[in-house]
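User: I'll paste a sequence; please echo it back and then give the predicted structure.

Assistant: Echoing your sequence first, then the prediction.
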Amino acid sequence: MTMSATSGNTPASGAAEVNEQDLRKTGAHPDYWYPLLGSRKVKAGKAVGVTFAGEPIVIVRTETGRVYALEDRCAHRQVPLHQGVVSGDEIQCCYHGWVYDDSGKCVNIPYVGKSERIPRGVRAYPCREDYGFIFVFPGDPDKADSVPFPEIPTWRDAKYKTRVLDDEVACHYSFLQENLMDMNHQFLHRRIMSKISTTFLGLREGDDWVEVDYTFSRTGKQPMGEKVIIGLRGAPTEDKPKDLMTVRTQYPYQILKFWTAGSEHPALDLWITYVPVDKAQGINHTFGLINIRKPGIPGLLDLAWPFVIWFTNGIFAEDRWVVEMEQQAFDAQGEDWNQEIFPVVQSVREMLIRNGIPIASQ
């Protein structure tokens, strides 16, 4: 594979090469379904303000429980609609009481009345609620019905128990995309996971996806949290002789599946995505579902769940720490100086640039 300019080779002078497009200045493409809020965070008859790449969006839950999404600024004086009042299926601005329906149309101005000429209102976004999240399609609304919605079958499978990830990370989404695809970083987790040797098995890729396989060997003690996640180990079989981890970036989502040797079903099935928060996309909100297969003994996973929380919190904290340092280095340098040699990361970078959009100048 030929290394592209975006791999970040830095000349001896210390100044970065001029890239056709810097990955860290590439924005997430808006024409996809993105989770913007956990379902539990907006109660019936309430509204919550969120953002996608700096664009303010209000998530409204009607008094009957239905959700919809609008531009989070009143057409009148531009104050946030999430500060307003939800009444029935409509939201009323906190300032002068202008009323909007789920299409964004202004349907009433109290001191003017419904019969008079009313301004056009605000933008409405396609919105869906599933997997415990509220998803919004921030791009071209005419494409929403044709763009595939995420499929996470293990979330609905009673044989799996789910850990939810829902947190902000102060870095560009691409640092986390690379982190998950590159399992050579296990040295970072040595205090939690002990010593692990990673073996790269193979890479597959397409225009909007990259997929990689790994297996592992251990020389240290296995932590309790990992034991719980992996579950009871089966006997190796001819077609499944080793533990196997497959990580796939299917733009803009990532999926990680882990099978123990001889197992037909993944012990771990992770779905995760990173939603840009600010206009410069130097902060992302990470939403994920860690689906863990239950062992044969009823209630055992529930009993051991605190170990799962401790283990996954520890791994995520270390990943957050290191990718935020990567972002800080990028901010200090003003461009990507990374000298990447691993083909998987090179392919992921190229794919993210190919499918993303340039971030508009500030």
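Confidence is low (pLDDT under 50) at residues 1-19. The chain is about 20% helix and 30% strand.
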